[in-house]
Amino acid sequence: MAYVLENAEIQYAIVEDQEQVDKLLELKSIYPHLRHIAYDDERGMRHYRQQEFISFTRLQEIGSAWDKAHPGFFEANIAEGRGSDNAVILYTSGTTGKPKGVCQTHAALLAAGDGGVSFERLTDKEDILSYLPMAWVGDCLFSFAQAMSAGFTVNCPESSETVMTDMREIGPTYYFAPPRVFENMLTMVMIRMEDAGAIKRRLFHYFMDVARRCGAQILDSKPVPLADRLRYAVGKVLIYGPLKNVLGMSRIRVAYTAGAAIGPDLFRFYRSIGINLKQFYGSTETCAYICLQPDGQIKFDSVGLPAPGVEVKLADNGEVLVKSPTLMDCYYKRPDATSAAIDAQGYFHTGDAGLFDSDGHLKIIDRAADVGRMNSGAIFAPNYIENKLKFFPFIKEAVVFGHQRDVVCAFINIDIEAVGNWVERRGLAYSGYTDLAAQATVYDLVRDCIEQVNASLAAEPGMGGTQIHRYLVLHKELDPDDDELTRTRKVRRAFVAEKYAVLIAALYQDKVTQYIETQVKFEDGRSGTVAANLQIASCQTFPAVQAAA
Q1: How much is the average pLDDT of 503-515?
Q2: What is the pLDDT of residues 219-273, one digit of tens each?
């Protein structure tokens, strides 16, 4: 936070409440240049005497008085604005280093908004739920740019704790969420089904098999045998309709996900129950507008076709290059980074590796910097494998290793809620995450998930050589506060590899246990140590299919 304040040279801040005021006060020793701080919620603020503080209500009163004393001042300043003016500075997540300030213009944001509205034929009748951080490009696109273009209704939840309740109450017609939100929703559904009665469980699994077989084809208006259509219709009444209602998705006409790759099985689940979920591809530097998936042309393993007005091509090394009217103006105060990201021909280098299929759809394999090679010569795309693992509700996070190695090995983070529920139903006790992660039954559960992924990889041409051979369940959750994840929950792969080098070595030295002590940061700012003797296990691999000549 201090880095962003200093980089953007912030002098004025408008914050929500006393908690946010206290954060800025704490940062004054690091960044002393904040001259004015306005707070919206006045509770708890009456004893603050700092001269730079002012209530937002009082600030509005001062503004109204100024407006009356200087008629036409506001309108004159608006009239001087141009589309090429910077509208916002959006900071990147800092996956590969310090966050960079992306300067986006009014014209670029509106071009992305108009393009998306036209592509999906959005109208002023849509309802959306605005619950994501306003400083993220996704919310700028959906809650600002597209809302301005289409004029639809933007609904805000009452609080972060009531998002799911508010979603059911509002019933949005147009919805966006990163993959993690869709994963959490599915985990919640699966946990509830495990607790349901035997008849309900059998009905659920039977009709979900029907949905997997034909649901996506019905959604895309493709031919489906009459018997399956009838079964699906019954499932819609008994399972899919009530399920969508519980998720607040009964009225959704278009749903989007982006921000990270989504597992094909997770994607297929939502489309199979009749939710028109699509992937789009973009970045902060392009106003989140590069590729979109047209109705009827949805592919689980692609991000769609280049969006209207966008030119996409691949570099010799497979990196995705983009030229678009939605491209950023620059990185703030970083001309070196700007010239490295945008070449002389005006193409933005995304840093993602991809390929086009025979229909012109773009597939994102991984970050270009993360794509490696096994010693066998096989392409190693860690993010692709990790997303397959994270489809399972019991696996919250995964990090796989295999570049310049003979085999692939993995770190696993379990989902404590899903796994805790699973072991409790079996009458097993645990004292916390570290204890739960070490249990033999949990290792068996994780092994089953990994072996299903291995079977899937074996069936994909060119991916059979990247099956996971050995794994361990980490003794702590990977955490942004420990610098292991970015704030958008992307793995800081190089940092994790360095921090847990002793565990990686143990995986590849055929050890069966490895002791480790790890420094952690607690929510109250204190530091501590978590120690454990981790078990290392092997899993089954399968014969790989041969790629077609």
Answers
A1: 95
A2: 999 999 999 999 999 999 999 999 999 999 999 999 999 876 676 778 889 999 9
Q: Which amino acid is at 364?
A: I
Burial class (CB within 10 angstroms; exposed 0-12, middle 13-18, buried 19+) of 173 = buried
**Token output for 148:** 């301005």
Q: Are 36 and 11 in contact (CB under 8 A)?
A: yes
Place of tokens 């998002």: 163
- DSSP result, 489-514: --B-HHHHHHHTHHHHHHHHTT-SEE
Q: How far is CA 461 from CA 155, 406, 458, 549, in A?
A: 45, 18, 8, 11
Q: Which of 305, 308, 507 is nearest to 400 (CA)?
A: 507
Q: Which two tokens stand for residue 40?
A: 């919206």
Which helix (H) or strand (E) is 29 found in, with range?
Answer: none
Half-sphere exposure of 212 (CA within 13 A, CB side): 10
Contact 459, 545 (CB under 8 A): yes
8 Å CB contact between 128 and 152 = yes
* DSSP character string of 1-64: -HHHHHHTT--EEEESSHHHHHHHHHHTTT-----EEEES--TT-TT---TTEEEHHHHHHHHH
Paired strand residues for 323: 311
pLDDT at position 526 over 90: no
CA distance readout (Å), 347 to 105, 191, 312, 329, 517:
17, 46, 9, 13, 46
The span from the CA of 471 to the CA of 443, in Å, is 9
Place of tokens 């296990």: 537
Rounded (5°) CA angle 121-354-386: 95
Question: How would CATH label the architecture of 372-538?
Answer: 2-Layer Sandwich (3.30)
Residue 183 to residue 395: CA distance in whole angstroms: 10
φ, ψ of residue 372 in degrees (nearest 5): -130, -165
| Phi, psi dihedral angles at 508 (to 5 degrees) | -95, -5
CB 35 within 8 A of CB 10: no
On whether the CB atoms of residues 29 and 13 are closer than 8 A, the answer is no
Residue type, 404: Q
| Banded model confidence at residue 14, pLDDT cuts 50, 70, 90 | very high
Sequence-distant (≥ 6) Cβ neighbours of residue 392 within 8 angstroms: 449, 452
3-state per-residue secondary structure call for 349-395: EEEEEEEECCCCCEEEEEECCCCEECCCCCEECHHHHHHHHHCCCCE
Residues carrying CATH 3.30.300.30, the chain: 372-538
Q: How far is Cα 224 from Cα 417, in angstroms, rounded to an integer? A: 38
